[in-house]
Amino acid sequence: MTEQVISRSSSQEAVIQKDAKYVMQNYGRQPLVLESGDGCIVRDIDGREYIDCVAGIAVNNVGHSHPKLVEAIKKQAEKLMHVSNLYYTVPQAELAEKLVKITGMSRIFFCNSGTEAVEAAMKLARVKTGKTDFVAVEHAFHGRTMGALSLTYKEMYRTPFKPLVQEEKFVPCNDAEAIANAITDKTAAVIIEPIQGEGGINIHSDAYLKEVRRICDETGTLLIFDEVQTGFGRTGKWFCKEHFGVEPDIMTMAKAMGGGFPMGAIAAREGIAFERGQHAATFGGSPLACAAALASIDIIEKEDLLRHATEMGDYFMSRLKDISLNGVVEVRGRGLMIGVELDRKCADIVDFALKNGVLLNCTSEKVLRIAPPLVITKEQIDSVVAVLEQA
User: Fold this and answer.
1) Minimal CA–CA distance to 60: which of 283, 225, 299, 267?
2) Which terminus of the chain, N or C, has less C-beta within 10 A?
């Protein structure tokens, strides 16, 4: 792609100014107003195209505006969008059955987002163990609501809102002994992202997660895997836990679950489930959200996107390792969840990529996160690598 001169048109400027006037300014946005997209391509309101390597932060796994997903949402919207969970619906029952099959777990609770899923997992762990505390890992990100914030490591997220619901213990990554030492008779669960997303695409070792599972079994502590960012094919498996051969007691999921439609859930093993009245979500598992999720899962299956994500991820990382990128410390990842660690802040590269038709973002100050839709092609990867090589 040739460099595009990104100057704000009057139409873009009008949207940005309206946002500045009426929307709380809590996001650090790039000066870009997006309007449409298909596959791995998005377009701004002036018609300029970009290869999307953010995918809504690992959300648009089946690509933008996939025809089958759009059709499923339209069909369901014409019939029934929302009813209370006082009643049953066919899409919810069918999706629960499907999720049990692909997760290998026993029961599902539906909610609306990743942080809601973490809150639900925390409540479930407390009510099933009768214990109150949790152990989390340094650099972890589990959400920004008050409960989930207790498990999120970064002080800039935590400090303005102290006192938190509770102060949890954070232990170093890949240190099973530290987890064993942190567990007390008050510990309800250990919570871990199999690959840390916001923390910098940090990958735990197979031996570490297996040892954590053993420690939790030995101490009667539940193990929660946060698969909000790693789920639904992102790493080349349905869920990242499959890479490690370790099964959690509770698993959170969201982001790519609805193919772009907001949705979250937790899955739990046999014997661990909420009882009547212990938790609820007004919009959790709505017919519309469930129809979107069923379509998204069907697309991943029918288009063999698990295999494609593995192959394209291997190709992407090999290309990144082969080219001469000034200041690169390490390229790491699984499937199409890739981190490029630099010896300096990566914000300038993100800005350069934007001007050259590629959307990227930083996860931690010095790590570029590359998380495109799973439908990305080799040709599109080559274009992205060419831009990074220029940078």
Assistant:
1) 299
2) N
Question: CA 302 to CA 305: how far, in whole Å?
Answer: 8
Is the residue at 5 inside a domain? no
Of 378, 379, 374, which is closest to residue 300 (Cα–Cα)?
A: 374
pLDDT in tens, 161-209: 999 988 788 999 999 999 999 999 999 999 999 999 999 999 999 899 9
Q: What is the pTM of this model?
A: 0.96
160 and 58 within one domain = no
pLDDT digits (tens, 9 = 90+) for 250-305: 999 999 999 999 999 999 999 999 999 999 999 999 999 999 999 999 999 999 99
Closest residue by Cα to residue 51 from 379, 391, 388, 384 = 384
Looking at residue 294, its amino acid is L
Q: Indicate which CATH number applies to the domain containing 313.
A: 3.90.1150.10
Structural domain for 347, as ranges? 10-62+305-390
Q: What percent of the chain has pLDDT over 90?
A: 92
Residue 371 belongs to what H/E stretch? none
